[in-house]
Design brief:
This protein is mainly alpha-helical. The protein has 2 domains: 290 residues, no CATH class; 124 residues, no CATH class. The protein is built from 23 helices and 5 strands. It has a 5-stranded mixed sheet. Strand 1, helix 21 and strand 2 form a beta-alpha-beta unit. Helix 11 packs across helix 16. 48% of the residues are buried.
């Protein structure tokens, strides 16, 4: 390359850089702070989500290279959160709030990279922060909390690499991907979808950029210990994905479009679709059309392979929403009526999303709103633990000395660990808890919570139902009515029985 070629390249990069806008940090930070304040108001309502009880239990046991159902990062984060902020519902959710704020700000940064004005960036931050997608993973600490941040960060790097023609951003993208592999493997879907998008829509010259391969190598090096764990443990994540697809896939696929609209809200869904279309119509966005193809590819793959969860591609939805907000801002221009209409629609949509996504209904009134939703699963854990403890305390002294607790799922085990007092060892065959091993053969009495009575009857000579789980709130959630059974006279050694209790699934 001659000196003239280098000068021309620098000029072209400067021109592209000028097409982007400076980030409006102040208004965007105000929106993010407002989101954190909103999430704090409702952070302690109802109780732990089932997955939160599981992550807490995994983290409490100590660090691990991986689990059958997930990488190791989230339990580590939960362990750190409980150590810093306290072992409470509020404390465990602080990282989720920070993730929500981070995604909100990253969405605004995307809008800036696309040439959005300060107003467009603020609109993007507000739209992203008030979507059900972000409100949900900002309220609960779940794998999507970390994963969506990673996707959004990767996409910011990709936008900068393509729009500014600054290849070094591929290295930053690779670094984020490598770290993200410790949170959720589905980030590899983003990589594959974007690469296919670049092949189909260009700019294909990036495949001649050494920075792209440096970024890929960096991501591989950082993520390799986690990938080695998978390879040396018979790829448990593939078995988990297969189990989820077989149990939940049909229902999610049938509701894919409906769930996508609910995930964003009607207005934000429209803005996303506008963004998807405009990526292929606005000339200045030609270098990043791969994002549009990437979303279609990722959504189709999620639908066909991974159970049809629209939130699994949430990072790409945020990018499309940023595009849509920039388009909407340009449509508004200087027209006051259009601006008022857009802002009013966003505010009304935000209010609806808050009501649907956060625990705004008082606990005492919740039984009147038996709608399908995750909040139903958050109540009754203390009562479940109290009933299990009462069943254990009712055993004769000799039986208590040899007793163990056996739960059907990881949430029950997590609730007993969190709220139980003076209880014996807790066992479960659900997901990663199965790997912790079977009860000892010295355990002659089992207090089983929620376990299939037929399974217990086949393995024990004597089983008696001593109670049924009742949250005392009249809420018909998955735990309501589950039996608490005391079993004795085990038919075989635990080593022979334990594989029969293993199951891979999401809660419940």
């Amino acid at each position: 390359m001659t000196s003239l070629d280098r000068e021309l390249l620098m000029v072209r990069r400067e021109v592209r850089a000028r097409r982007t806008s400076p980030v409006a940090w102040l208004p965007v930070a105000v929106v993010a702070a407002g989101l954190i304040a909103l999430l704090l108001v409702f952070a302690n309502e109802y109780g732990y989500a089932p997955d939160e009880l599981y992550f807490r239990l995994l983290g409490k046991r100590g660090l691990a290279w991986g689990y059958v159902d997930q990488p190791p990062l989230l339990p580590m984060v939960v362990r750190a959160a409980t150590a810093v902020f306290g072992d409470s519902v509020w404390g465990i959710r602080v990282p989720a709030m920070l993730c929500a704020a981070a995604v909100t700000m990253l969405g605004a940064v995307m809008a800036a990279e696309l040439g959005g004005t300060r107003r467009a960036q603020t609109l993007t931050a507000f739209a992203v922060g008030t979507s059900a997608l972000v409100l949900n993973f900002g309220h609960y600490i779940v794998t999507n909390s970390l994963d969506t941040v990673a996707w959004a960060a990767v996409l910011v790097c990709v936008l900068r690499a393509l729009l500014r023609e600054q290849g070094v951003w591929w290295c930053w993208a690779g670094l984020v991907v490598g770290v993200a592999l410790y949170a959720k493997y589905i980030v590899l879907l983003l990589v594959a979808a974007l690469l296919l998008g670049l092949v189909l829509a260009g700019p294909r010259k990036v495949f001649a950029d050494r920075w792209l391969y440096a970024g890929a190598g960096l991501g591989l090096v950082i993520g390799s210990p986690n990938l080695i764990y998978q390879a040396t443990h018979d790829f448990p994540q593939l078995h988990m994905a297969q189990a989820l697809g077989s149990t939940d896939g049909t229902a999610y696929r049938a509701m894919f479009v409906t769930n996508l609209v609910l995930l964003l809200g009607p207005l934000l869904f429209v803005l996303c679709m506008i963004g998807l279309v405009q990526l292929f119509r606005v000339p200045e966005w030609k270098p990043v059309r791969a994002l549009g193809i990437g979303y279609v590819v990722a959504a189709a793959a999620s639908y066909l392979v991974d159970g049809g969860r629209p939130d699994y591609t949430g990072g790409l939805l945020i990018a499309l929403l940023a595009v849509g907000c920039v388009v909407a801002d340009r449509w508004v221009g200087v027209r006051t009526l259009r601006l008022v209409t857009l802002v009013l629609a966003l505010v009304l949509g935000a209010a609806l999303q808050v009501v649907l996504s956060l625990p705004v209904i008082p606990r005492s009134e919740f039984h009147k709103f038996q709608r399908a939703g995750r909040s139903l699963q958050d109540v009754g854990w203390q009562q479940l633990a109290a009933q299990a403890e009462a069943a254990y305390r009712a055993l004769p002294d000799a039986d208590r000395a040899d007793a163990v607790l056996l739960t059907q799922n990881f949430a029950e085990a997590g609730a007993l660990d969190r709220y139980g007092h003076g209880l014996p060892a807790i066992y479960s065959g659900h997901n990663g808890l199965y790997e912790w091993g079977a009860p000892p053969d010295s355990a002659g009495v089992v207090v089983a919570i929620g376990v299939d009575p037929a399974r217990l009857a086949a393995d024990f000579g004597s089983c008696r139902t001593v109670d049924t789980v009742d949250n005392r709130l009249g809420i018909d959630n998955p735990e309501q009515g589950r039996p608490i059974i005391v079993c004795r006279d085990r038919e075989k050694p635990w080593a022979a029985l334990w594989p029969g209790y293993r199951h891979l699934s999401a809660y419940p």
